[in-house]
């Protein structure tokens, strides 16, 4: 097994013909990974993603080989997946205005080249979900918006159209199931690859609070920053410490760790409808 990639809170290992996608218990706020782990976060998000993958196979095949055939040290928080030729774009669907999409809208009236009506505010629900891809920048900075035409120039119009169609369909399915259980999925980021036959395959993680914005539906108020379903306790505590939001971040107190773990358990149980096993 060989380590091949580190994300903020996840790792990729090469294991023979396959890859191992390993989720840590680390949490990142304001783009800074905090030093205190959230127990079971990696397992909860991995199992939520596996739950989504299994229910989306009628929409798109996925890269999972196994959710159990992983090294003991990673048990429950890793998946074995097949190696793909990754599409070099983050495939983002947005149903609400937030983050970089909000900033781009306020500056240009559009997001990734998709025009939006005037007068929308932070947290506004969009008239319909939109496909707003970005390119992965290598310097670890923020990804840059990509228009549909840029995607089409890179991968061909047909494949670009499929990426948009699949991204929006996965988002719709996720947003529908989540909102029926009190969670707004404001946006989500998907990654696709192509297998040896050139087929599009859904990769990475799917509809987790790390790859998406999860908001508690009963606290949604357009016109201000929304509360993050999972990370709000950490954000609020961090704001109260006077931390300058630069690395290294401060240790998270035990009560905030416990409350945050509970939020990940709640997200898992609300969406899957089943009790967390531990
Ligand atoms: C740390 C998580 O990885 C990423 O963020 C992006 N990434 C995905 C791959 C990948 N590469 C080949 N095949 C795959 N199945 C995958 C997947 N997933 C590489 N980087």
From TrEMBL:
Residues 4-247 form the SAICAR synthetase/ADE2 N-terminal domain. It is an enzyme of class 6 (ligase). Pfam families: SAICAR_synt. It catalyses: 5-amino-1-(5-phospho-D-ribosyl)imidazole-4-carboxylate + L-aspartate + ATP = (2S)-2-[5-amino-1-(5-phospho-beta-D-ribosyl)imidazole-4-carboxamido]succinate + ADP + phosphate + 2 H(+). The keyword Zinc-finger does not apply. PROSITE patterns: SAICAR_SYNTHETASE_1. GO terms for molecular function: ATP binding; phosphoribosylaminoimidazolesuccinocarboxamide synthase activity. Signal peptide: none annotated. One of its GO terms (cellular component) is cytoplasm. One of its GO terms (biological process) is 'de novo' IMP biosynthetic process. Its EC number is 6.3.2.6. PANTHER family: PHOSPHORIBOSYLAMINOIMIDAZOLE-SUCCINOCARBOXAMIDE SYNTHASE. This is Phosphoribosylaminoimidazole-succinocarboxamide synthase. It comes from Actinophytocola xanthii.
């Amino acid at each position: 097994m060989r380590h091949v990639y580190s994300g903020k809170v996840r790792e990729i290992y090469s294991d023979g013909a396959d890859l191992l996608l390993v989720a840590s218990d680390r949490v990142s706020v304001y783009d800074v990974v905090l030093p205190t782990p959230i127990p079971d976060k990696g397992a909860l998000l991995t199992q939520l993603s596996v739950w989504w993958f299994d229910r989306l196979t009628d929409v798109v095949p996925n890269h999972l080989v196994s959710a159990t055939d992983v090294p003991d040290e990673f048990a429950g928080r890793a998946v074995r997946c097949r190696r793909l030729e990754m599409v070099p774009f983050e495939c983002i669907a947005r149903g609400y205005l937030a983050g970089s999409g909000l900033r781009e809208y306020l500056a240009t009236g559009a997001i990734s080249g998709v025009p939006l009506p005037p007068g929308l505010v932070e947290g506004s629900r969009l008239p319909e979900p939109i496909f707003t891809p970005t390119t992965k920048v290598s310097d670890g900075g923020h990804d840059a918006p990509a228009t549909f035409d840029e995607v089409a120039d890179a991968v061909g119009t047909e494949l670009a159209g499929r990426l948009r169609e699949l991204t929006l369909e996965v988002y719709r399915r996720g947003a529908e199931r989540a909102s029926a259980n009190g969670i707004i999925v404001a946006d989500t980021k998907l990654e696709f690859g192509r297998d040896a036959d050139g087929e599009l395959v859904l990769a990475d993680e799917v509809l987790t609070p790390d790859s998406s914005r999860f908001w508690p539906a009963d606290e949604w108020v357009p016109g201000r920053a929304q509360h993050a379903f999972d990370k709000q306790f950490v954000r609020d505590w961090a704001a109260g410490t006077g931390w300058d939001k630069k690395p290294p971040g401060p240790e998270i107190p035990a009560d905030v760790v416990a409350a945050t773990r509970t939020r990940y358990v709640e997200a898992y149980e609300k969406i899957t409808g089943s009790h967390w096993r531990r």
